[in-house]
Each structure stands twice: as structure tokens, then as C-alpha cells.
């Protein structure tokens, strides 16, 4: 039996294409990556809006901007690396900083794995005498289980060392996160935000949809209460009003452009074109435009379905007439809601006087019946609320969640079919043993390498890109109350999807395709065959890491497709000043729920194969380093954050690494069992038990601190800032936390140098004899060098007056539905030499606010506006909720 098995393995060896597959994947991917990088280096110098908008864009505050880099091809790299990652924390958000930290942490995780596994397992595997060739000589499959059985102890002991390091790293990062999050959320600037003092209670029973009863429940700590209501009718009216207003704005701009185009033609013919001063502003409405544009050429549209059928009307006159009707109707409906005349729904926002009181209310049991007034959420910004979810009763949420989970499960099962095909293609060289696929033997090795290496990796990436869209829709259908919660739901669901599809299904089908014929010929040798061939499926993931790490990372950096789309949209489809400004001023954002699981899965795969095929760790290190570089540039210079999870993306990603540990240990146990290696098998079973106990203990100890703020620190902070609360009164003295900035909460805008100085203070504040601690000591003792007091120095400086963040109007209407507070939009049209815009402003302003300031239509018919200004007419100040 063993001879037959060895014979079959030998046949596979003769056809082994692991090295050719690697080369065939690496060469085209490397060339494409070089093209992407070259494009980035060239365009970065001239296209500042797309490749460095955070250095100057007027829609950002000075405190949110990043210092500009040198403009040469390569001289910017040194300055780029001098900017510390903590700069993102101080200028953007805690999510952005922790995302970069996770990428850097995975680089360290993989690199340390290289340092632990390669020196021991490479020589052990390479001299294993199982006769494997090419890349497979470095994997577990090259150990002869009959004559070299003792070598498996090396894998078991190396596994103990590396898996132990991974568990320590997980614990260390969770401790760091807890201290950083506490320091960040308890800083005066963040603690005084209205979102930090407001709790959302869902599934509130009807008797408690009463402000008086809610104040009795929560006492005199309550400042404001917003009971959500049905806004269906207001939503329709506001949507219709805004739609008509934007149609009027487009028609006005179109009319001005058309009239000035005809005027320019007249100028070229030598006629009297006139100018803005030729016609008084009290001239008959439309007379100026009528001089150049006949009535038949004025902007028109049809009133029927999709504007394709129905009566044709003059767009400007019709819109003015409609707005005369709609604007008063909207104002009346909003006034009715504000006076409390609406149908109440079971979602209530309660603002408390202080953050400590809000945290207390969020952590207590609010109602005596199960699933009532729960779950509750703190820290949700008004702009992130999903208002449709407020009306979902508790029983419907329960049903919806189970339905959504069932749908995702079914989706995973059926998605396995195309992913399985990808796994089979990755081992296409082994399929030539099947009788009707013998023709594959005639395919050149180079082409076969591309088919087995590059093609499945690209196909898998495309397949997985469609999933997050569905996951976010599922989260909203399940009743998640905010966009932040949607991202967290997507992060969990997409990670499960990635692990099952990208890893488990692909691994199983990849291994099955390589050994299926052998098992069919000799079923009794199944364990021997699997032990020899399962590690070979790692070759696919090496190709996958190459594609992800080089091509995808370089495309993330260069953003070629996005740049082309941006230029096309801005030049050809942004036809009004408003559209041009919105496209110019709004930065792209990273979707945490769909981006982070991809890299968590890569880390999980690397951990799983660390002792089976340690070569993979090297490519994982390179790939993650490329991603870290690309996203570091984007976070610091390009992207913005629209969704704030208050850092909760990080512990989820960190704890998901346990999946890699469990899979690695189970795979090792399975392989030791198939190889009949009893000693190593027992060692790995013992370590699996230790891992489970460690995991449970870690959750018990740290989970409460991951998601809640402790009352002890809340009391100390409020005592420090002179806030009289019940929590603060319970503290006797107390040493205020260390902060690297002025006690009054105000300070200069942090710079790169100040960020570096803060990092130094973190270490010096907790060192002995005033000496900076070594990197090893900082790593081994996070509770000493990364504790709450130390990390206070990394908290953003308070560049705003946190005692006067909000006007009275904002304070009282913060958590009203957006359609209730929506104001009539200001229309923005360009001024023109003929003066038509002045007349249109005069006539349209009788119905709706309109201005032609801040942009001009030049002689070529192109709208020109000051792209450097901070406040065009439609600019809205960003409120830090």
C-alpha cells in the first residue's frame, strides 16, 4: 500500500508546477505593479487634488490637514516615513489610526513567523526524504512519514513557539486598544461631544414613549429627549422639494450656458452682444435670456413616466410654480413634527448632562421585560443613524436577524460552487490524470503556470468583491440602527465568508483535485495521500498573496481607475457649480467593514500554514508590507472618514486571528494523525486545549473593557475638569491622567514634530532613571508603557472650544430626523458676462434662495470657481457631533 502511494506521489512530483506557477504569476503581476507605481509617481506631482487633497483642501480644517510632501519623483519618500502613524489619530480618527496599526501588526506577525519557522523548518522539510520537488520541498509534505517520523516534533514545537507568540500579540494589542480607546473617548474634546453623552434606546414599549416617564426612569441627569416619529409624509415632501430645486438649478445653469454660447457666436460675427450693464435689473422677466434663446430652445421636460411621456413644460417656470407650493407644505409638516404632532415609534435618543451619566445609563438594565429598551447604543452620530430601523419592533428584529443569518448561510453554501471551480483550476496540472482531461498534458508549462497561478487568484478577488454590498444590505434589513453598526456587522459576516470561501473551500477543492484520482485508485492510502498533498494547496495562496500584495496594493496606491473616473465625472458630468464643488470637496472614504476582513483573512491563512508551508509567511510579510505602505499614504493624504465606530473595528479584527490559531492547530493535529505521529499529535492537542482556555480567559477579563468606559476613569476625568456629577463626587482626590497638552483643553494644531514628541513622552513618562525603554521592553510590558496615563499623550490636542461646540438650535435639534431639520436648499448658479444670472437670481429668489456669487461662466462656456476657497455659497460647516 505504501509503495502504491509513493508511486502515485511520484507521478505528481513529475508534473509538479509549483515553481513555474509562482514565476508565471510573479512576472506579469510585477510588471503590472511597476506600471501602477510609475503612474502614481508621475501623477502625484501634478494631480494634487486626487493624490494629496488632505494637504490643502478647503473643506478640511487646518487641524485636519497633513503637511505637504516634496514634489520630486522619489525625494518625498523620506519625509513620508517621518510622519508617524499616530498622526492619523490626531488629525483624522481613531478608526484610521487603528486600521494602520492592524496592517503594521500583521506585518510584524508574519515577519516574526519567518524568523521562528524558516531557520528550523526549512532544513527539516528540505531533508525529509519524501522526494518532493520545487517549492514543495520546503513544506510538510516532503517529510517521509515512514522513515523520518521524528521530524514532526520540530513542527509541533515550532508551532508551540509561534502560536504562543500570536496569542501574546493578540493579548498585547487588546490591552493597548483598551487603554487608547479610553484615553481617546475620555479626552475633553470627545467627551463633550453630544454623541458621547447621548444613548439610543431601541424597542422602547409604547407606555414609555413619553418624556415625563423617561425622565422619571433616568432622573435629573437627562438634558434632552428625542422620541423618534414616523416621517413618511415629511420624507416624501422634502425629497420632492429638493428634487424640484435641483432640477431648477440645472435648468438655470443650462439656460445661462445656452444664452452665453449664442452671445459668443454673435460676438464672433461682429454683432452687438451686449453685456450685463445694458439691461436694467427691473426688465421684464426672461427678456435678457430671450434675446439669445428662443422659447422653443429653453430647458424643458415632460411630466410623465421617467420624463419620456406626458405634457412638455418649460422647466424653469414649472419648477418655480411647484416650489411655491412645496416649500410652504414642507415648512408646515416640519412645524407639526416639532410640536409633537406625529406618530411615535420605539426609538428614543436621550442626552445626558455628562459622558459618565450617559455611560451609566447605557450599562444599566433599563426595563423589567426582556428585549425591551434594549439593545442600547452610545456614541452614534446623528448623520449615521438609519432612521428606518427606529420603527422596527423587538420581535421583528429577532425574526429579521435569524432570516438574515439564514440567508447569509445559504449564500455561503451556494457561493461555494464558483469558488470551488477556482480551487480546482489552481491545481489544474493534477487533473491531467483524469482520462477525459489528458489533453492538458499538451499545454505548454508557461501557459499552465498562468492558468494555475494567476487566473484563479484574479477570479477569486473578483468573486469576493461582490459580497460586501450584499452584506451591508443584510445588516440594514436586520435592523442595525447606524452605519457604524452596519460596518461592524459587515466586518463579521464578510470575515466568515472570506474564511469559508477563500480559505476552507478553496483549500479543500485544491487538495481534492490534486489527489482525487490517487484516492480513487487506492482508497486505503487516503491518510498518506492527504498528509502528502494537503500542504501543496499552499502554492495557490502564495500566488494569491502575490496578486494581493503587489497588484492590489499598487492599484490601491495609484488609484488609476478611480482617478480616471474622477476626471471624467468632474469634467463631463458635473454640469453645475454645486456638482463641481461636491465632487471636488468630498473625499473618498475607506469602508472598514469590507476592507479589514480581507487582510484579517490573509493573516489567518498565513498563521494556518505557518508550520505546514512556512514559505507562505515570507510572501505574506511582503504582501502586508505593501498594503501597509499603500494604505498609509491614502489615510494620511487622500481619504476621509465618514463612519466612526469609535475604534471597535480593531478588537474584532484582532480576536478574529484566533480563527487562524484554531485552524492551524486542527490542521496540524489532522496531519500528525494522518502521518501516525503520536507524540507530536499529543503535544498539539495539549496546546489546542491551552488555546481554548486562554481564549476564554481573555474574553472574560477584557470583553467588558473593550466596549464600555469604566466609571473610575470617568469620575477622575470629570473631577479633573471640575464637572459636578454623581460619579465625580464619589472620587476622593484622584491623580488626574497625564496629558501632553494644556489643561484648559486648548492647544496648537498638532504637527508631525509634535506627534513624534508625544510618542517620546509616552515612553519617557514611564521609564526608569529618565532613560527611554528598549523596544523589547515596550513590547513585553504593554501594561506599563502603553497604559491609560501614557496614551493620554497621544490623544488629539483640543483645537476647538469644547465648551461651546454647539449653538442652541443644534443642541435642541441634534437627533431630530434629517428631513425635519432640512432647510430649503440655496441654489447656486454662475454669473455671466451677459448678466442673465443677475436677472434669474432676481426672479427665482422670489420663490427660493439663489445666488450667483463664487463662480463665473467664462467666454469659453466653462464654469470657473475658486477651488482654494474654504467657503463657497453652498459650503456647510461640519458639526462635530
Automatic annotation (TrEMBL):
Every 10TM putative phosphate transporter extracellular tail domain range: 779-873
Q: PANTHER family annotated for this entry?
A: DOMAIN PROTEIN, PUTATIVE (AFU_ORTHOLOGUE AFUA_5G10920)-RELATED, PROBABLE MEMBRANE PROTEIN DUF221-RELATED
Which family is annotated?
Answer: Belongs to the CSC1 (TC 1.A.17) family.
Task: Record the organism.
Answer: Coniochaeta pulveracea
State if Transmembrane helix is listed as a keyword. Answer: yes
What's an example GO cellular component term for this entry?
Answer: plasma membrane
Q: What is this protein called?
A: CSC1/OSCA1-like 7TM region domain-containing protein
Q: Which UniProt keywords apply?
A: Membrane, Transmembrane, Transmembrane helix, Transport
* The keyword Transport belongs to this UniProt entry's keyword annotation: yes
- Spans traversing the lipid bilayer: 20-43, 102-121, 152-171, 402-426, 446-471, 492-512, 541-566, 587-609, 615-636, 657-675, 681-702
What does the UniProt entry say about where the protein is found? Answer: Membrane
Amino acid at each position: 500500500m505504501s509503495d502504491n502511494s509513493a508511486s502515485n506521489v511520484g507521478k505528481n512530483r513529475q508534473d509538479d508546477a509549483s515553481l513555474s506557477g509562482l514565476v508565471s504569476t510573479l512576472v506579469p503581476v510585477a510588471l503590472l505593479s511597476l506600471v501602477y507605481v510609475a503612474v502614481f509617481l508621475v501623477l502625484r506631482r501634478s494631480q494634487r487634488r486626487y493624490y494629496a487633497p488632505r494637504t490643502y483642501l478647503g473643506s478640511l480644517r487646518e487641524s485636519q490637514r497633513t503637511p505637504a510632501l516634496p514634489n520630486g519623483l522619489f525625494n518625498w519618500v523620506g519625509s513620508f516615513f517621518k510622519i508617524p502613524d499616530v498622526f492619523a489619530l490626531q488629525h483624522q480618527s481613531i478608526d484610521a489610526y487603528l486600521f494602520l496599526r492592524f496592517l503594521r501588526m500583521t506585518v510584524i506577525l508574519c515577519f516574526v513567523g519567518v524568523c521562528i519557522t524558516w531557520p528550523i523548518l526549512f532544513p527539516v522539510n528540505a531533508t525529509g526524504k519524501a522526494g518532493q520537488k520545487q517549492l514543495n520541498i520546503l513544506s510538510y509534505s516532503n517529510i517521509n512519514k515512514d522513515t523520518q517520523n521524528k521530524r514532526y516534533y520540530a513542527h509541533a514545537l515550532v508551532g508551540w513557539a509561534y502560536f504562543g507568540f500570536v496569542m501574546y500579540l493578540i493579548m498585547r494589542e487588546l490591552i493597548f486598544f483598551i487603554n487608547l480607546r479610553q484615553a481617546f473617548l475620555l479626552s475633553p474634546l470627545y467627551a463633550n461631544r453630544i454623541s458621547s453623552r447621548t444613548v439610543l434606546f431601541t424597542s422602547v414599549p409604547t407606555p414609555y414613549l413619553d418624556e415625563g416617564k423617561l425622565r422619571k426612569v433616568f432622573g435629573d441627569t437627562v438634558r434632552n429627549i428625542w422620541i423618534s416619529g414616523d416621517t413618511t409624509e415629511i420624507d416624501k415632501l422634502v425629497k420632492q422639494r429638493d428634487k424640484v430645486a435641483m432640477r431648477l438649478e440645472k435648468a438655470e445653469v443650462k439656460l445661462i450656458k445656452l444664452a452665453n454660447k449664442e452671445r459668443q457666436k454673435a460676438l464672433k460675427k461682429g454683432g452687438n452682444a451686449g453685456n450685463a450693464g445694458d439691461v436694467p435689473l427691473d426688465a421684464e422677466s426672461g427678456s435678457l435670456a430671450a434675446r439669445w434663446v428662443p422659447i422653443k430652445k429653453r430647458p424643458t421636460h415632460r411630466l410623465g413616466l421617467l420624463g419620456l411621456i406626458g405634457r412638455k413644460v418649460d422647466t424653469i417656470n414649472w419648477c418655480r410654480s411647484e416650489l411655491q407650493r412645496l416649500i410652504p407644505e414642507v415648512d408646515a409638516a416640519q412645524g407639526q413634527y416639532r410640536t409633537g404632532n406625529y406618530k411615535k415609534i420605539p426609538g428614543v435618543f436621550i442626552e445626558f448632562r455628562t459622558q459618565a451619566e450617559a455611560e451609566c445609563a447605557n450599562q444599566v438594565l433599563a426595563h423589567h421585560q426582556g428585549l425591551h429598551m434594549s439593545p442600547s447604543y452610545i456614541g452614534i452620530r446623528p448623520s449615521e443613524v438609519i432612521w428606518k430601523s427606529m420603527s422596527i419592533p423587538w420581535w421583528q428584529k429577532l425574526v429579521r436577524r435569524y432570516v438574515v443569518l439564514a440567508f447569509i448561510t445559504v449564500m455561503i453554501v451556494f457561493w461555494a460552487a464558483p469558488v470551488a471551480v477556482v480551487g480546482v483550476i489552481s491545481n489544474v496540472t493534477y487533473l491531467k490524470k483524469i482520462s477525459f482531461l489528458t489533453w492538458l498534458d499538451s499545454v505548454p508549462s508557461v501557459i499552465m503556470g498562468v492558468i494555475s497561478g494567476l487566473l484563479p487568484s484574479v477570479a477569486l478577488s473578483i468573486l469576493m468583491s461582490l459580497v460586501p454590498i450584499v452584506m451591508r444590505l443584510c445588516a440594514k434589513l436586520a435592523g442595525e440602527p447606524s452605519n457604524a453598526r452596519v460596518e461592524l456587522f459587515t466586518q463579521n459576516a464578510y470575515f466568515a465568508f472570506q474564511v469559508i470561501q477563500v480559505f476552507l473551500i478553496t483549500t479543500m477543492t485544491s487538495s481534492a483535485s490534486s489527489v482525487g484520482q490517487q484516492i480513487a485508485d487506492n482508497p486505503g492510502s487516503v491518510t498518506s495521500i492527504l498528509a502528502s498533498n494537503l500542504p501543496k494547496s499552499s502554492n495557490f495562496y502564495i500566488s494569491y498573496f502575490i496578486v494581493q500584495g503587489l497588484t492590489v496594493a499598487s492599484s490601491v496606491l495609484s488609484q488609476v481607475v478611480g482617478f480616471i473616473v474622477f476626471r471624467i465625472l468632474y469634467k463631463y458630468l458635473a454640469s453645475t457649480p454645486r456638482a463641481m464643488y461636491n465632487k471636488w470637496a468630498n473625499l473618498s472614504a475607506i469602508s472598514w467593514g469590507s476592507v479589514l476582513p480581507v487582510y484579517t483573512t490573509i493573516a489567518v491563512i498565513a498563521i494556518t500554514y505557518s508550520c505546514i508551508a512556512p514559505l507562505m509567511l515570507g510572501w505574506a510579510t511582503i504582501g502586508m508590507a505593501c498594503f501597509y505602505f499603500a494604505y498609509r499614504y491614502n489615510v494620511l493624504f487622500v481619504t476621509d472618514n465618514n463612519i466612526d465606530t469609535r475604534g471597535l473595528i480593531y478588537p474584532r479584527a484582532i480576536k478574529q486571528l484566533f480563527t487562524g490559531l484554531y485552524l492551524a492547530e486542527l490542521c496540524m493535529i489532522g496531519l500528525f494523525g494522518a502521518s501516525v505521529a503520536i507524540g507530536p499529535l499529543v503535544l498539539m492537542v495539549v496546546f489546542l486545549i491551552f488555546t481554548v482556555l486562554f481564549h476564554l480567559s481573555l474574553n472574560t477579563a477584557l470583553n467588558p473593557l473593550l466596549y464600555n468606559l469604566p466609571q473610575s476613569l470617568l469620575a477622575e476625568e470629570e473631577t479633573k475638569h471640575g464637572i459636578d456629577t454623581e460619579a465625580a463626587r464619589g472620587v476622593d482626590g484622584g491623580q488626574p491622567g497625564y496629558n501632553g497638552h494644556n489643561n484648559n483643553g486648548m492647544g496648537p494644531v498638532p504637527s508631525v514634530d509634535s506627534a513624534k514628541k508625544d510618542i517620546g513622552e509616552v515612553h519617557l513618562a514611564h521609564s526608569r532613571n529618565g532613560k527611554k525603554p528598549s523596544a523589547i521592553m515596550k513590547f513585553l510590558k504593554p501594561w506599563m508603557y502603553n497604559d491609560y496615563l501614557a496614551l493620554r499623550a497621544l490623544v488629539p490636542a483640543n483645537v476647538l472650544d469644547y465648551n461651546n461646540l454647539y449653538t442652541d438650535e443644534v443642541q435642541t435639534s441634534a437627533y431630530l430626523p434629517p428631513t425635519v431639520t432640512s432647510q430649503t436648499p440655496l441654489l447656486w448658479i454662475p454669473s455671466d458676462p451677459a448678466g442673465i444670472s443677475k436677472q434669474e437670481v432676481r426672479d427665482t429668489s422670489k420663490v427660493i434662495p439663489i445666488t450667483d456669487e463664487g463662480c463665473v461662466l467664462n467666454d469659453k462656456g466653462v464654469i470657473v470657481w475658486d477651488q482654494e476657497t474654504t467657503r463657497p455659497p453652498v459650503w456647510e460647516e461640519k458639526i462635530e457631533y
